[in-house]
TrEMBL record:
Catalytic activity, EC: 1.8.1.4
InterPro entries in UniProt: Class-I_Pyr_Nuc-Dis_Oxidored (IPR050151), FAD/NAD-bd_sf (IPR036188), FAD/NAD-binding_dom (IPR023753), FAD/NAD-linked_Rdtase_dimer_sf (IPR016156), Pyr_nuc-diS_OxRdtase (IPR001100), Pyr_nucl-diS_OxRdtase_dimer (IPR004099)
Cofactor(s) demanded: FAD
Superkingdom assignment: Bacteria
Domain Pyridine nucleotide-disulphide oxidoreductase dimerisation: 349-455
Domain FAD/NAD(P)-binding as annotated: residue spans: 4-310
Pfam families: Pyr_redox_2, Pyr_redox_dim
Record bears the keyword Acetylation: no
Family: Belongs to the class-I pyridine nucleotide-disulfide oxidoreductase family.
Name by which UniProt lists this protein: Dihydrolipoamide dehydrogenase
UniProt keyword terms in alphabetical order: FAD, Flavoprotein, NAD, Oxidoreductase
Length: 466
């Protein structure tokens, strides 16, 4: 006898989806949450960060349009932006999400879960068991090992998305997605921002993405320094932060934000009780089943396959379905692209960086494709020279790249950089996931005059066989 068919540890967006999909297939489900139902995405990541960015993007877009630019007579209202951000987090109150769990007939257990053995957990002294347990505990912010940084009480990504006042000045350490977005957000709200990155911006993406984003940051007034590392951080009795860098320079700011990495949210979960290691990423198969077990699943950030909410929710849909199938003894469809697997994690992951310009990408970069031994041909095109882009913004600046597997004649990667490119990404995602032949893409006619005409220009640059 078990208390539930499935116990989900972690009630963020991903955990909610695992629970929902399993329950809809007939399982009894409980979720355990030690913080807010809705998790990181709802309160400290996706939703509040885009809410911080969107208003300034809209004003910047208006300023790039003759006729609209003349109507912009002031700056972004920071207080109103922060209030709007607060509304999207429900002022960090999870009552509405708790209500959703109740309406879905999913049991909520408040507290911190610890695995005590196979298929069993304990929450604040009470034991529960399940046919299956899903770990959906996400990832946590980490600090780089800079002397004095921890003692200076820096902002992490949580503080960077939830602060209630605009700092006079801000140092952002890290040029990844989080660092780039938060530097952009706070600069647009009026802070004097400096960003330092050891190896440039947006590593792992096409090189031109980081270059164009750095140009956009500098246009916004951000001091972007690459190849520079902090060596010491001190906060004085007045609250000011002094940072020393390895080039001998120093910088005094009101706040410092560290955005240099994430660690698995698996500390203190009791994984050692079932032969696993606390504090480590969890290895899974494509059904999210943890290697070496037949009852434990790890979904979302915690398995380190793709640290993105939408990709975690994709994994969650597959996991919820396959857990239900296994518990009920139904057939499992674990073949590539089957109903019970997350095949897209391997080579078809979409991602948007909401800087100005935006970066929207899916699949493999040219370098990643070559590293996998793919017979690659890549083409690029100036997105600003497309008629739809010129109408979208005066002096539109952007770039697009398409990576093709020549042996199969299909697109394996696409990157767009420019204003409003996020809304073009899903067409590229469908092309990559669907492995649409390049020859067939010639017949997918882009509407004129929209920025989607970039597809025709990329195909023309690629060339059509005689």
């Amino acid at each position: 006898m078990t208390d539930y068919d499935l116990i989900v540890i972690g009630a963020g967006a991903v955990g909610e989806n695992v629970a929902d999909y399993a329950h809809k297939r007939g399982l009894t489900v409980a979720v355990v949450e030690a913080e807010l139902v809705g998790g990181e995405c709802s309160y400290w990541a996706c939703m509040p960060s885009k809410a911080l960015l969107r208003s300034s993007h809209a004003v910047a877009a208006a300023k790039r349009l003759g006729g609209a630019a003349e109507a912009v007579t002031g700056d972004v209202d920071a207080a109103a932006v922060l209030a709007r951000r607060n509304s999207f987090t429900s002022n960090w109150d999870d009552a509405s999400q708790v209500q959703w769990l109740e309406s879905a007939d999913i049991t909520l257990i408040r507290g911190r879960a610890v695995i005590t053995g196979e298929k069993t957990i304990e929450v604040d002294g009470t034991s529960y068991s399940g046919h299956a347990i899903a770990l959906v505990t996400g990832s946590v912010h980490t600090l780089p090992p800079v002397p004095g940084l921890a003692e200076a009480k820096p902002w992490g990504t949580r503080e960077g998305t939830s602060a209630q006042e605009v700092p006079e000045s801000l140092l952002v350490i890290g040029g990844g997605v989080a660092g780039s977005e938060l530097a952009t957000a706070w600069a647009a709200l009026g802070a004097t921002v400096t960003l330092v990155a050891r190896h440039g911006l947006l590593g792992g993406m096409e090189p031109f993405a980081g270059e164009l984003v750095a140009d956009g940051m500098r246009a916004l007034g951000i001091d972007v320094r690459t190849g520079v590392n902090p060596t010491r951080v001190d906060r004085d009795e007045h609250g000011l932060v002094t940072t020393t860098f390895d080039d001998g320079t120093t910088l005094v700011t009101s706040e410092v934000l560290a955005a240099t990495g994430r660690a698995p949210g698996t500390e203190h979960l009791g994984l050692s009780s079932v032969g696993l290691t606390d504090g480590e990423w969890l290895d899974v198969d494509d059904t999210m089943l943890v290697t070496g077990t037949d009852w434990l699943y790890a979904v979302g950030d915690v398995n380190h396959r793709a640290l993105l909410t939408h990709q975690g929710k994709y994994q969650a849909r597959a996991a919820g379905e396959v857990i239900a199938a296994r518990v009920q003894g139904r057939p499992v469809h674990a073949e590539p692209w089957g109903a019970h697997v997350a095949t897209a994690d391997h080579a078809a992951v979409p991602q948007v960086t909401f800087t100005d310009p935006e970066v929207a990408s899916v699949g493999l970069t040219e370098e990643q494709a070559r590293q996998q031994g793919i017979d690659v041909r890549a083409v690029e095109y100036d997105l600003g020279s497309v008629a739809g882009s010129a109408l979208q913004a005066d002096g539109y600046t952007g770039r697009a790249k398409m990576v093709v597997d020549e042996s199969r004649g299909v697109v394996v990667g696409v990157t767009f950089v420019g204003q409003d490119v996020a809304e073009m990404l899903h067409a590229a995602t469908v092309a990559v996931v669907g492995e649409v032949p390049v020859e067939r893409l010639w017949h997918a006619v882009p509407a004129y005059p929209t920025m989607n005409e970039i597809w025709l220009r990329l195909l023309e640059t690629y060339g059509r066989p005689e």
